[in-house]
Design a protein that fits this description.
Elements (H helix, E strand, L loop, with lengths): L4 E4 L15 H12 L3 E5 L4 H7 L8 E4 L4 E4 L2 E5 L4 H12 L5 E5 L4 E3 L4 H11 L3 E3 L12 E5 L9 H8 L4 E6 L2 E5 L5 H12 L6 E5 L5 H6 L2 E5 L4 H4 L4 E3 L2 H8 L6
Parallel strand pairs: 1-2, 1-12, 2-3, 7-8, 12-13, 13-14
Antiparallel strand pairs: 3-4, 4-5, 6-7, 6-9, 9-11, 10-11
Length: about 260
């Protein structure tokens, strides 16, 4: 197994059971892999600033696939960025705002813009997600390109409004469930797989030299691209049945596969 790059989803994969912090063990593993010449990539629907803070001690040594593939960063440089059609983005935002129980998240390069309906959403954003954010009144006030729009439904997106949004917008944008309460909208050609492809080309690495970990539908293109696609045991059967490699914990799998002396 000649691995040069390891990409991992965050929520539900590297971070499980609602955990919002990277453990010291994971950081040690990333450092050990770096010493072996293996690049670690955090691949997430999260924003760059959030991911950079999470991995602060090793952020200079890893790459980031952010916003479900709309933004790829390495050593503080943009390797790729794909913006949405602004008029379509505005229509999706309006649709989300008109739907009871749904909150909107609008992603720029380093800032997320909110038009909150409730204090609980602001508190969730401030105290749980800990993104860089700004509260606005009108999407037209956003001073940069929109790279992702998301709908958040606390009671569960697919248990409630997810099918409505997917059916309405899937012919205009890429719609992907990225968590229990989240559905993301990005440009049609954007996903973690295309983002990883771009990164691999930049680094002259082939998919046969890559290992990836994921647990949800926004990870499928990435897992299918690489030779060693590991799906988490906590994933739904529909996802698990597509791949032969399984993992209970990313850190356990990496420690075993690469024989790392980390406890």
């Amino acid at each position: 197994m000649n691995i040069k790059l390891i990409a991992s989803d965050m929520d539900g994969t590297l971070l499980q059971n609602g955990n919002q912090n990277i453990t010291a063990k994971i950081l040690e593993i990333i450092e050990a892999l770096h010493e072996k010449g293996i690049l670690f990539v955090a691949a997430s629907g999260r924003q760059y600033a959030n991911l950079y803070r999470l991995f602060e001690p090793v952020s200079k040594d890893i790459a980031f696939i952010c916003e479900n593939g709309a933004l790829v960063m390495y050593q503080d440089k943009i390797l790729s960025k794909t913006s949405m059609n602004k008029q379509i983005a505005f229509k999706i935002i309006e649709d989300i705002r008109s739907k009871d129980g749904c909150e909107v998240q609008i992603s720029g390069e380093n800032t997320t813009y909110l038009i909150p309906k409730s204090e609980s959403y602001i508190n969730h954003y401030k105290n749980v997600l800990k993104n860089n954010y700004k509260i606005i009144q009108d999407p037209a006030d956003i001073p940069e390109d929109i790279i992702k729009v998301s709908v958040y439904e606390e009671a569960g997106i697919m248990e409630n409004s997810g099918t409505y949004f997917i059916n309405k917008w899937q012919d205009k944008v890429k719609c992907t469930v990225s968590g229990f309460g989240w559905l993301d909208f990005v440009s049609p050609n954007v996903n973690k797989g295309t983002a990883l492809t771009h990164l691999l080309k930049k680094l002259s690495i082939t998919p046969e030299e890559v290992m990836a970990f994921g647990d949800n539908y926004n990870d499928l293109e990435m897992l299918s691209l690489v030779k060693y696609g590991y799906v988490m045991n906590n994933a739904v059967d529909d996802i698990k049945n597509r791949y032969s490699y399984r993992s209970n914990l990313v850190e356990e799998t990496l420690t075993d596969v690469f024989e790392l002396n980390i406890k």
